[in-house]
Amino acid sequence: MENKIKIVETSNIFSKIIGAIVVAAIVLIVLKLVNGVQGKRAFSAELGGDSAEFEESKDVKVRFSDVAGSEEAKENMKDIIEFLKEPEKFESFGAKTPKGVILYGPPGTGKTLLAKALAGETGAEFIPTSGSYFVEKYVGVGASRVRKLFNKARKKSPAIIFIDEIDAIGGKRGDGQGTSEDAKTLNQLLVEMDGFKDKENIIVVAATNRLDMLDDALLRAGRFDRHVMVGLPDLNARFEILKVHAKNKPLSEEVDLFQVAKQTVYMSGADLSNIMNEASIYAIKENCSEIMLSHIDKAMNKIIAGDEKKDRSNISDMEKKITAYHEAGHALIAKLLNKESVPKVSIIPTTKGAAGYTIINPNEKMFQTKKEILNRVSGLLGGRASEEIIFGKENITGGAANDLQRATRMVVTLITKYGMSEKLGLVCFDDREISLENQIILEETKRVLDKIYSTTLNYILKNKDKLNLIAEKLLENEIIDEQDLDALIAS
Known about the structure:
Rossmann fold, 5-stranded parallel sheet, 18 helices, 9% strand
């Protein structure tokens, strides 16, 4: 009897185990099916479903009159406007318009704005996207999206396709940087551009900060035929850009935008727009009815160095003194050696992490000689040199880190791009070939930097009296302007 009971209990246990296994298996199968359907839907979307739709706009408000400081670039694009408006004029001469236009130059110079203005002037459909949109982990997704983009443009003709940051998909092939998927996407872009017919009235405009990094096949005739540089604005261009961004802003009569343009050397259009916007915000905060020169000055300081810290209680007197001599060194070299404008020197720490800052307006020139470049490197090393002279080599600080980084970059460019190295000679390397891991480049960079630093030390030692005057004035006032600086150096 006992044995029979045990057999029955064991049988029940086995039945329950088998039942649980069956239920678990069914649940797993159902989950797998659901996930499979969802995965297919997601993958389908990635290949060109609803999530891969491209935005477009026929009514672009931007015109070339809204784009200041890019006259050469605008002139380069005028015949494209005529082609899209009057294609028959070109057909009668057998002329072919460029299929693609590459806008290249530093960030913030208005490349996207120019592309929008081109669409606005022609009334063409504007279809914007970016190179990174085509970079995907799934096989074939990038190429599929390229096909979809061009199919949409053909339906919307006349159209302007704008691809921002095209280097994300158009980088040089065979350099070991890209993947096979990137190559497929680029190939599809090349195929689509080759497949254009003149009567389709489609122009591809692309933007990049690094023209030298793009694949040669992308830049050849029949694809991106026209290369338009959109560089940093010169003095007159900055003046025009500032006038555009000052439009509809209540400026005080004391504000001279031409003088502001003089103080913003090497700033981009985006920087200038930001200055005028920040100046407006400062005026609003102070409940002013107009934007004063002081507001623009604060805005420039914010863009360059960050906001000044209000709480400075944790800064010791010794730290203030080190900062004063460091900034005095920069200002001294800039003024005496480089003959540059120095509108402001400050030892007030900022929100960008600087213990102090020296605003320098470099001389605006098309070309710089080797001597001028080396002098600018000397200016960057002036802060560290002053610390060493006053406090000794064992008491130098890490405050020169950013200066050293910029100085190193300038020297590397000088010896690897400009052919100005005594040891390397007349060479100009591709960016991918330049590395401080290269022993020859590293040794030559160090040799040049050491030589300039030695010269800088000697120069500051000869003018130590002026260095002391500047530093003492900074410790007294925290900020000195160019007029005070000139007076101190002249005394």
